[in-house]
């Protein structure tokens, strides 16, 4: 997978992998309402970092169950309605900006430091790994496939679910 | 019976061959069916394995987690029917997989969605929630030879059975044919033996009849001759007693009657082989040569004579009687020729080895081109007083006298004739040993 860096800082392979992960999670997650036929699968980005900068490029031409992926930048106070996945850039996380999407069926993905979303990406030994907060996902009305959970480094299980 | 067995022989192998062919076809069909069933089950089994793998690996494949993917793929090695298994990204790159030794390696890239039907490979897409993520590739191992052999053993067994059936039936048929041939040969032998026996019995009957006739007629003729001599002697004594002249008409008439009666008794005696013969060494060629004029004179102008006198040996017979007999037969031949014709007189040497009359013989054969004889006439030709000539013209003693004479001289006699084909009378007389005469 070759990725062209766009920002001033050169994009690392880890950033490209993270960007790809963002849309690759989609098939393993079930939202309460399916995407309307013919409508795009919308991935939103909040804030800006190298991953969010790469995302439109990486997700270009990709599809989630026949729906073309559409990447959209959302402003801080803008309601994230219509977004299926919300990638929150590093810079936003400290500010507790995730509160606005809590309880909504939006898969929040965060990266590196700061408060974690449903899925939190990080780098360990030059490998991109992810942790899943299944409990949080359940609260948001999202179902995450056990196949994905099996691949996660850490899983915060939903209460009542087997460890 | 032979017709039935022949037909049976021809139908039997066809039935056997048809049966064997049906058996073979059934066996082949069963084998093909079993093979197809096995292959489809094998392919189905492989497909199911691939689908299970495809259902397990989406996350590992999607996120390129080789370690996790290997954990899914590795259990496939337990199944000996899977020679190779690989996980491929959506873009065709290989993530991970294995291939056994001595089997085809994994393709380095998998292009497109098409299932590779050849080489028993199976390709199944990896899909998560409708999103295609990659491919599972399964290479099926070549079937173990033992399995294949055991599957074909049934067909081989059927084929062998069919061949054995053919061989068995063919063998039975050959034996049947041979047996039938032996039977028909035995039958033919039996028929020949029966015919031979009938012939011998007929000859014996004829011989016994001639013997009985000979004894009866010989006894009568002998006594009659004695009585004739008494009559003759007394006639002459009476003639002297009453002083009749020598040329008395009545005495001459009585004398003539006595002479004729005496001649008749002589001929009957000749037939009954009680004739007083004076056998001498005779060269038949010379005898017939000497009779040339006599024979010529007793035949008509329109009858030609042919002579083939080739015997080299002499015989011992009463010369006068022999001449009588030749003349008798020639006259018979003449009478059998209503118009022109030919009489052939032949002599030759013959060595007979037939039972009853072996030895060296001189053969006299007199053949005519006359009207021939019907079988019933032929059967009675040697009987005394049997004649086909009008009353007064034949005595019926010619051939019977000849028969008696020849038999008394140690030989035998045959007649061969059929209506319209003339007649051949053959006389066999024993040749005198070691005494050859020059070829006449």
Shape of chain A: globular
Overall mean pLDDT score of chain B?
A: 82
Quickly give the structural class of chain A: alpha/beta
Beta-strand portion of chain B reads 15-25%
Which sequence of strands runs across the widest sheet of chain A?
Answer: 3-4-2-5-6-7-8-10
Helix content of chain A: 10-25%
In terms of DSSP E residues, the strand content of chain A is 25-35%
Q: Biggest β-sheet of chain A: count, sense, barrel?
A: 8 strands, mixed
Task: Give the helices and strands of chain A as they follow along the chain.
Answer: HEEHEEEHEEEHEHE
Q: Provide the CATH top-level class of the domain at 277-430 in chain B.
A: Alpha Beta
Q: State the low-pLDDT regions of chain A, or none.
A: 1-8
- Can you tell me the overall shape of chain B? rod-shaped
For the sheet with most strands of chain B, the description reads: 7 strands, mixed
Fold and architecture overview:
The complex is a heterodimer of chains A (163) and B (440). Helices cover 23% and strands 28% of the residues of chain A. Chain A is of the alpha/beta class and 163 residues long. Residues 1-8 of chain A have low confidence and may be disordered. By secondary structure, chain B is α+β, with helices and mostly antiparallel strands. Among the domains of chain B are: 7-143, Beta-Lactamase; 277-430, Heat Shock Protein 90, CATH 3.30.565.10. Chain B has helices at 2-56, 58-62, 66-73, 145-242, 249-271, 284-290, 292-298, 319-336, 375-379, 398-408; strands spanning 82-89, 94-99, 121-128, 131-140, 279-282, 303-309, 313-318, 341-352, 359-368, 412-417, 423-436. In chain B, the strands form 2 sheets. In chain B, strands 5, 6, 7, 8, 9, 10 and 11 form a 7-stranded mixed beta sheet that branches. Chain B has a 4-stranded antiparallel beta sheet with strand order 2-1-4-3. In chain B, helix 1 runs antiparallel to helix 4 (145-242), helix 4 (145-242) runs antiparallel to helix 5 (249-271) and helix 8 (319-336) packs antiparallel against helix 10 (398-408). Chain B is rod-shaped. Chain B starts with a helix and ends with a strand. Residues 1-11 of chain B have low confidence and may be disordered. At the A-B interface, strand 3 and helix 5 of A face helix 2 of B.
């Amino acid at each position: 997978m070759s990725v062209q860096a766009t920002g001033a800082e050169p994009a690392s392979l880890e950033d490209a992998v993270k960007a790809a992960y963002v849309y690759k999670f989609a098939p393993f997650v079930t939202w309460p309402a399916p995407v309307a036929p013919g409508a795009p699968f919308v991935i939103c980005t909040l804030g800006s970092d190298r991953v969010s900068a790469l995302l439109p490029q990486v997700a270009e031409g990709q599809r989630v169950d026949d729906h073309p992926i559409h990447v959209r930048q959302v402003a801080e106070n803008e309601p994230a309605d219509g977004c299926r996945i919300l990638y929150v850039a590093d810079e936003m996380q400290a500010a507790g900006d995730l509160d606005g999407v809590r309880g909504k069926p939006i898969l929040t993905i965060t990266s590196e430091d700061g408060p974690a979303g449903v899925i939190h990406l990080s780098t360990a030994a030059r490998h991109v790994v992810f942790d899943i907060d299944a409990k949080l996902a359940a609260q948001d009305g999202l179902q995450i496939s056990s196949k994905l959970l099996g691949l996660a480094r850490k899983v915060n299980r939903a209460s009542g679910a087997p460890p | 019976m032979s017709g039935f067995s022949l037909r049976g022989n021809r139908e039997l192998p066809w039935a056997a061959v048809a049966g064997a062919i049906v058996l073979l076809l059934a066996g082949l069909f069963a084998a093909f069916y079993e093979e197809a069933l096995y292959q489809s089950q094998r392919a189905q089994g492989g497909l199911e394995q691939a689908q299970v793998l495809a259902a397990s690996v989406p996350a590992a494949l999607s996120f390129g987690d080789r370690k996790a993917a290997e954990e899914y793929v590795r259990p496939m090695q337990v199944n000996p029917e899977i020679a190779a298994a690989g996980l491929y990204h959506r873009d065709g790159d290989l993530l991970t997989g294995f291939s056994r030794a001595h089997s085809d390696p994994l393709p380095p890239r998998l292009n497109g969605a098409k299932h590779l039907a050849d080489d028993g490979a199976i390709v199944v897409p990896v899909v998560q929630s409708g999103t295609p993520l990659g491919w599972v590739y399964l290479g099926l191992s070549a079937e173990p030879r033992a399995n294949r052999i055991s599957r074909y053993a049934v067909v081989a067994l059927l084929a062998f059975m069919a061949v054995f059936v053919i061989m068995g039936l063919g063998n039975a048929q050959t034996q049947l044919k041979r047996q039938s041939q032996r039977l028909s040969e035995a039958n033919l032998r039996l028929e020949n033996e029966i015919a031979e026996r009938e012939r011998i019995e007929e000859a014996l009957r004829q011989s016994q009849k001639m013997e009985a006739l000979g004894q009866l007629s010989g006894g009568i003729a002998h006594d009659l001759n004695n009585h004739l001599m008494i009559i003759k002697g007394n006639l002459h004594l009476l003639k002297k007693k009453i002083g009749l002249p020598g040329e008395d008409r009545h005495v001459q008439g009585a004398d003539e009657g006595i002479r004729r009666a005496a001649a008749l008794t002589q001929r009957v005696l000749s037939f009954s082989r009680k004739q007083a013969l004076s056998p001498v060494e005779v060269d038949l060629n010379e005898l017939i040569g000497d009779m040339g004029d006599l024979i010529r004179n007793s035949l008509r102008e329109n009858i030609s004579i042919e002579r083939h006198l080739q015997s080299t040996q002499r015989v011992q017979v009463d010369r006068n009687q022999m001449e009588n007999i030749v003349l008798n037969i020639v006259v018979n031949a003449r009478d059998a020729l209503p118009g022109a014709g030919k009489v052939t007189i032949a002599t030759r040497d013959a060595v007979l080895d037939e039972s009853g009359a072996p030895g060296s013989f001189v053969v006299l054969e007199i053949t005519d081109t006359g009207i021939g004889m019907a079988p019933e006439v032929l059967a009675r030709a040697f009987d005394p007083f049997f004649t086909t000539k009008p009353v007064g013209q034949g005595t019926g003693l010619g051939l019977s006298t000849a028969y008696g004479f020849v038999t008394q001289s140690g030989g035998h006699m045959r007649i061969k004739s059929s209506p319209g084909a003339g007649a051949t009378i053959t006389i066999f007389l024993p040749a005198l040993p070691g005494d050859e005469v020059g070829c006449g």
